[in-house]
Structures
1.
Amino acid sequence: MFLALKEIKHEKVRYGLIIAMIVMISYLMFILMGMMLGLANENKAALTTWSAQTVFLNKNANDNLGQSVITKDQLADHSLNKHEALVGQTATVMTRSKKKAHKESVQFIGLDAGQYIAKDNMPLVAGRHAKNKHELVADESLKVKGYQLGDKVKLNSTAENYRLVGFAKDSQLNVAPVVYGRLSTWRELRGAAPQVVASGIISNQREGASRFKELAHYPIAKFIQKLPGYAAENSTFMFMIGFLMVISLVIIAVFLYILTMQKMPNYAVLRAQGISARHLIGATIDQAVILTITGICGGLVLTLLTAWLMPMTVPLVLEWPLIGLISIILILLGGIGALLPVRMIMKVDPVRALNS
Amino acid sequence: MSVIKLKNISKDFGKGISKVQVLDNVNFTADLGELSLILGPSGSGKSTFLTIAGGLQTPTTGTVTVEGETLEKLSTKERDQLRLNKIGFVLQSYNLLPYLTVTDQFALVRRIKKIGNMSQEELDNLLEELDISQLVNHYPDEMSGGQNQRVAIARALYPNPPIILADEPTAALDSNRVKIVGRLFKDMAVKHHKAIVVVTHDMRLRDFADHIYQLMDGKLTMER
Ligand SMILES: Nc1ncnc2c1ncn2[C@@H]1O[C@H](COP(=O)(O)OP(=O)(O)OP(=O)(O)O)[C@@H](O)[C@H]1O
Ligand SMILES: [Mg+2]
């Protein structure tokens, strides 16, 4: 530690540059991770709010709630229990009528007011629940965008007027805010035939495929993986984060390698003076760890500042266990990066010290 | 008593026609309390001799014994320990770590060899004597060549080793300072009972030596 710290202190510019590099890499990793989780959240937040465990769709729906329709026939011999709710989903444009007319792409979710989601799993941050077909509850993100309780809105190009009476907590689906209304409204927006009841059935219990034989059955994890774009986005982010880890490993290894190479004559002298190779290796690994820890702390500070100061289209979701995990991996990679110069140090020939 | 003993040492570099014999059947002993001077022109093998004596490289033939221990029988780790505890090296170049101040050069020694070093008072006196006590907070690149050399001498003496091996320790010093270093080495040998071996081509050190050797064409001959 002594040698490691003294050297960093004396060579501020050199080590400052390496630290700056690690700051930027870890910052980028944290931001990417935050964006990945933020985006994932916008894909599925509503499902979490509903405590969804099982989803049933039409078998021809291509795994997509918005494209699914189920009919009275398919439900004929079943009545829903209190853990199940009919859900009608359709992508909709909501237009605010007064003030500056404003258009918003939303996911309209039609519910049955008597079933569990509308009754129990729709926590509000403001206003109240809808009492009739002409009242809507919108996701809280629309409140942030300037919508207010009492605003008059239209859905798609239908003539009907609706009123926003509440804002719901954490209700986003397919990266769009959810607007809750009635199933009958959903049917109109969808232009669905009268025998169509909903897009699908959501249950907050684990249910088997045999529950509705005519429908396709999805445990929630599988359903989320099938959300449009979800898996592709996640793997893109994971790939970037993984590659950044490899880059940071290479950077640390290369820098330490070059620095160690320059220090070989000094190390030779120390070896001649009887200082063991182990001690010098320890100093190098200490240095790698000090550099990565300092860099990661810098990256964290920048990440927090960004999350705090910068308005983002996708909100950053910072999960501390994951950030901790990334940090630990980075520190380990720093240590591994130090192994390359370690081989060199082990081979230092003290005789060189006298012959230069 | 001879603390360091080289017996029938030869050293070759290279093979076949490019083979050079740098040391040819060299015999040498150094005793505690004595200052030995080995003189020879550049390229005569002085550094080679010193590194073999200090266990930094192995001779082609012959044996080196330090305080009764045969070096070739020791492991790398044991040889590190021996150098750390028994031998003070003053090297020809790169003696000091560029990123440590003079004070920290000694602090580093203390961290690795925790006992048996000079007391702070002894160190202060030594720095005073070498006229470098005002430089304690300087980095090596903030000092002249001669000042660096004197710090290196202090660095070698600080752990109190019984043996000092010095390679051209006075190359960068003016005549006055050569006298100071010569006298210091002589004092160290006599008062502190050390064996001091200096290889050099600096004739100015002759006056302080108990024994003088000449190294020429691989042969070591005793002059006095
Ligand atoms: N590792 C080596 N490989 C090949 N030849 C070497 C090696 N080390 C030293 N030599 C040769 O051995 C001879 C003696 O070298 P050495 O460094 O011992 O001389 P020196 O007396 O210390 O010289 P100087 O006064 O210039 O320091 C030189 O001719 C040198 O080229
Ligand atoms: Mg030499």
Note: The pocket of magnesium ion (ligand 2) is lined by residues B 46-47, 92, 167 (CB under 6 Å).
2.
Amino acid sequence: MRYVKISKENTYKFLEHLKATGALYAPQKISDRFYDFCAISDVHDVEFEYDRTIRPPRRFFHLPDEKMFNFDMTRHELTPVKTQAEHIILFGVHSCDIVGLRIMDAEFLDEQKDSYYETRRKKGIIIGLSCLPDEYCFCNVRRIEFVDAGFDLFFHELPDGFLVRVGTVTGHKLVDPHPELFEEVSADDTKNMELFEEKRSSMFSIYGNWDNLRYFLELRMDHPMYDRESEICLGCGNCTLTCPTCRCYDVKDLPAINQVNGERVRFWDSCQFRSHGLVAGDHNFRATKKDRFFNRYHCKNAYCPETTTSYCVGCGRCTYFCPAEINFKRNLMEIAGYRGAV
Amino acid sequence: MMTIIEECTGDCRPRVGVYALTSCYGCQLKLATVQKIIDISNMVSFESFYMLSSASKMAADVDVAFVEGSVSTERDLEELMEIRKHSRILVALGACSVNGGVQSWAEGEMDHDALHKCVYGDSKLTMQGLQATPISKHVDVDYYLPGCPPEEDEIMYFISAFLIGTFPEPKDYPVCAECRLAGNPCILIERGEPCLGPVIVAGCKARCIGFDVPCVGCRGPVPHETAWFDSLAQTFLRKGMTEKQIRQRMKIFGSHDPNIERMLHSILGGETE
Amino acid sequence: MLITKDNIYDTHKCRLLRKYELTEHESLFLFRFEDPEVAQNWRYLPGQFVELSMLGYGEVPISICSSARRMGFFELCIRNAGRVTDRIHKLQPGDIVGIRGPYGNGFPVDQFHGRDLLCVAAGLGMAPLRSVFLYAIDNRWLFGNITIINTARYGKELLFQKELEAMKDIATAENIAIIQSTTRDPDWPGLKGRATEHMDKANVDPKNCAVAMCGPPAMYRGMFNYLVDAGYDPRYIFVTLERRMKCGVGKCGHCNIGTATSWKYACKDGPVFDYYAIISIPGLI
Ligand SMILES: Cc1cc2nc3c(=O)[nH]c(=O)nc-3n(C[C@H](O)[C@H](O)[C@H](O)COP(=O)(O)OP(=O)(O)OC[C@H]3O[C@@H](n4cnc5c(N)ncnc54)[C@H](O)[C@@H]3O)c2cc1C
Ligand code: SF4
Ligand code: SF4
Ligand code: SF4
Ligand code: SF4
Ligand code: SF4
Ligand code: FES
């Protein structure tokens, strides 16, 4: 892998260059406590120290709502809506979200490729950014706190800039034209990266490895936690809609008033909603709030072979953005009997 | 189960009626002013729509009737019965019709006679008043099109679905979903303000939260008994709201939900019906 | 074989050739692909399903219920159950619908070759099982003895009752046992009771038999107990599952089943599952 260094000041210049390459999105503060990936007009608005965005990066590739087809009912024709192909540059993506995108890839770019997702994803440029965990983070026990794939560039914070890992050819092509902005990595820089990593590791509230979690989840399916917590759950779906690896969507036909045309649209759905498991004859495979609550706990802790991780990447969003303050991490620890600060 | 317009070809256009009970007329104004109102009137024949035509009459024979307003007087009730008799499909249009609207707010706090006395004293009124209720308390309603006023895209979707001989699929998930998709910060989490988004049915694209105002619930509770007033009341209590504030807020548009009082009682105690 | 367009959600046009009423709520629809190239190359396995589009109304998963022998043609047996299926029931011969698929794993019929075959259907479960049964008849020399048990609550709900009855002519000569039974119909002149109650009439050898079943979970539970006790080889017991499906290709997430160690999509990993999958994944039946 190639490594280069960039000063903080040059980073802003680099961001300017990125802005000229495509649509640049980076973390920005949108309110007192929340951040989101926003279109960047002034590169000085980019927030380098943010915890987590309220909307996950998958939204750039799997749109929250999207017109899939226009149709003509008299000619029986579906016309796919062309996905616009502008470069989407995501700057400042944390490790958890990078693995999140790889999980999305595993689902949407398998042998049955979703062309809407594929077109956008191919045009996507992912630039990672190192982070320090807060009490909501548990990416370490998910084995994804340090990523080695899924980014074009990865920025590691140093006292005087960033050590940049160049992950792909696209990454090289972003760096190479700007020799004036980058320098070679020195032994001191490497030492500083080591210190950063050391500090970072020491900040997690829990340690260990949760690979055996899914077995405890199955061995304790009747754990009282599900009753207790689903009771206070609002069924609002925030946990899944903010999750970087949830991908459920619903499809609907919207006929036009002329009785001829119409649109087939899709939009994000959530297993926390009643109709997610509903079939004809009013039979519901997830009939109660508890069934739906349970469903998420199992879905998120299932194993994704492509990333060799769980579907949950430990980003903490489902707790941070739960209006009922239901603590996913704590509830999982309770089931598996893990120790550690919550 | 389903009531849909039978296929009609050639000159035959579905007949539609738009009626108002006790209301502000905002819902029919919305319907009358949708961008494609001309297209709609080319596709359907408005047999009765007072706002658009003086040739309208009460309870014409129609395929679809849109009824706005709550039943708040004896006359409302009579008219509603007539409308039902003359309509194949009846759609409750807007918050008052679907959930009783703000005029039914006082329900549970004060009974109708006491309320009447407090507003009108002993003066005589020509119209006999009733406790404001959603129309579904009195007649079978085929479809609900909520909103205060209803959303243009939903009005268009309902009419388009009827026109091709099928029935609309109403939303059954909460405002929070649209709020998240819209990229708003959550004001319930952040500021502890009493946002009703988690129990209110989506469709407005979380309009109020977009303007930094917590949802007051104008679209009414999520249907199919999935509005968890009890859980939300617990959340509100944790955020420091008082029992009275919680009850009042949830009842502005939701007082007629069959579960609300039982659920609130389980958390807040006090008042039951 | 799956023939997809560039966009996997795009459909192929199919023309309805014939509509045949089976029961009050279910009809059989015969379709043909409009595009000759698709018609010639489209292949499917018994137990696979298609996504059928009625533009403006929506898209629904429907099992293919015909034998794969007639190229470019296929049959669907559809119950009028809601928005889309109601519209399908209003179709007239000559009308066009959109089809994509076939999807799902289907029954592993290759593994069935050389064995006896037991098909057990309840209600609408007869739709996918008809495809298995017709496949076995079309490839008669690949199978040993064959038994099909078709059950419904009432006689008027028995799908393909007449078709199966008519086959009884050749059945004995071909070592095929056809058993049709109702569970709640006092006026039904034929056999009564659940599938398990008629297993004595099956002409198959448990030790060397493949079992294909489609019906409600309660039937699976009853049959599993019976079959395992009777010495059927669990590796050759297969069932199909129903879930809500929107995409059919493992994307939309609605058909998810299972628990943390065995998270599956019924559309992609199923809808056919074997005995061991069912007993090791809680909540499947
Ligand atoms: C693998 C599979 C095979 C099937 N095979 C057949 C068959 O051979 N014959 C038949 O009559 N029916 C079959 N069904 C059931 C059939 O798909 C539903 O009856 C149909 O989707 C109902 O749609 P609707 O719009 O008419 O009803 P509505 O109740 O109005 O449904 C609305 C939407 O919900 C979804 N939905 C509702 N019920 C189901 C369901 N049971 N399964 C999946 N999605 C559902 C659909 O997306 C549908 O468009 C099968 C289902 C599955 C999953
Ligand atoms: S965000 Fe919290 S309250 Fe909302 S559905 Fe998820 S767990 Fe329940
Ligand atoms: S389940 Fe929660 S912690 Fe895990 S990835 Fe999703 S939002 Fe993050
Ligand atoms: S099933 Fe639920 S938890 Fe799993 S991806 Fe879908 S919304 Fe997320
Ligand atoms: S602001 Fe209100 S509607 Fe939006 S997510 Fe929070 S609770 Fe839900
Ligand atoms: S956010 Fe709430 S109050 Fe505002 S329009 Fe929507 S439902 Fe009505
Ligand atoms: S039907 Fe969409 S994932 Fe299975």
Note: The mean pLDDT of chain B is 88.
